[in-house]
Design brief:
Blueprint: H1 4-7, H2 39-42, H3 87-100, H4 102-124, H5 139-165, H6 167-174, H7 178-211, H8 222-250, H9 253-274, H10 281-289, H11 292-300, H12 310-333
């Protein structure tokens, strides 16, 4: 049997085989890469928090039980000193607030300027013969009439300004004992107003005594000097405390100041109208006796017929105490 190639007389062609690909060099000759560490080992490890130290003897409270103070857990004692708050802390807080408010400095400065300035002008414009029947402490009386209005205004602003700005909430949050807060405000304000008023009146008394002296001048005795300085300072400070109590009850600056101006001014104006009626004449006389101008005149002992002024001071003290009782009651009952 012949193939087609043989039939045509051609030489047989050997079968072609596909070319083989050249053999590549083994990969082992390539430089080996350093073996990489796992990803978790390459990342910086986060600092591990140590478990809190549990003091020996600690027992976990059952569910629903009230939490105990940190210092009283088991037998552990906290190194941080724990102190209970008291009235001294409230006094320090109120002193910080009252001295850092500009209205306090300005009001007291205006009051001292009125008392000393008017007293000095009165002493400079009078002669020695004017003090033959009046003590040399008289010039302080005219300054005290105007200076008391400054103390009344400041007494209202000491507490009503906190209600107006809303800071009273912060005060009662820091010190939940509201009665303690009001007591601290009253003590700090009374001390500040009493010292300022008394020192101003004493300065006027010394200035007037130094400017007027002679054989015909009536030198003030101890009772007149004490009444014109300590007595008037106490009277004006009690008016300021009454203003503070009214401001605590009304919680509004304008309303409380208007109320206190009426308390100070109306008893000296209404008697003139009440005495026009025979049936109301006695009421007008008593109201005039306990009005602010007559009480100050009695403390200065300008005229012996008006008394010594200590009875008027006692009445004002009773009214102030009653006002503070009402302020304490309302402060505990009402919300802020």
């Amino acid at each position: 049997m012949t193939t087609p190639y043989q039939q045509q007389g051609q030489a047989p062609v050997p079968p072609q085989t596909p070319p083989q690909a050249p053999q590549q060099q083994p990969y082992a000759q390539a430089p080996q890469q350093p073996q990489q560490q796992p990803y978790a080992q390459q990342q910086p490890q986060a600092p591990q928090h140590q478990a809190p130290h549990i003091p020996p003897g600690y027992v976990s409270p059952p569910p629903g039980a009230p939490a105990q103070p940190y210092a009283a857990v088991g037998t552990y004692t906290s190194p941080i000193p724990i102190q209970r708050t008291h009235l001294g802390n409230a006094l320090a807080s109120e002193w910080t607030k009252i001295k850092s408010v500009r209205s306090t400095i300005w009001t007291l400065s205006v009051m001292a300027a009125l008392v000393v300035g008017i007293g000095f002008l009165t002493s400079a414009s009078t002669n020695d013969s004017d003090y033959t029947s009046a003590p040399t402490t008289l010039p302080g009386f005219f300054g005290a009439l105007l200076g008391q209005l400054c103390i009344v205004t400041l007494g209202v602003l000491v507490i009503s300004s906190e209600y107006g700005t809303g800071m009273i909430r912060t005060t009662f949050t820091a010190s939940p004992a509201r009665a303690r807060v009001l007591t601290a405000k009253a003590l700090v304000f009374f001390a500040l107003s009493f010292v300022t008023t008394t020192l101003s009146l004493a300065l006027v008394a010394f200035i007037s005594s130094g400017m007027h002296s002679g054989p015909g001048v009536m030198d003030p005795n101890n009772d007149q000097l004490i009444g014109a300085t300590l007595g008037v300072g106490l009277y004006v400070s009690l008016l300021g405390l009454l203003s503070l109590a009214v401001g605590s009850m009304l919680r509004h600056s304008a309303g409380a100041i208007t109320t206190m101006l009426g308390v100070v001014l109306l008893p000296s104006i209404l008697p003139a109208f009440l005495m026009m009626s025979p049936s109301l004449a006695e009421l007008g006389t008593q109201m005039q006796k306990y009005s602010s101008p007559f009480a100050l005149a009695a403390l200065f002992q300008i005229d012996d017929s008006v008394g010594s002024g200590w009875s008027q001071l006692g009445v004002l003290g009773g009214i102030t105490a009653a006002a503070f009782v009402g302020a304490f009651v309302l402060l505990e009952k009402r919300d802020v």
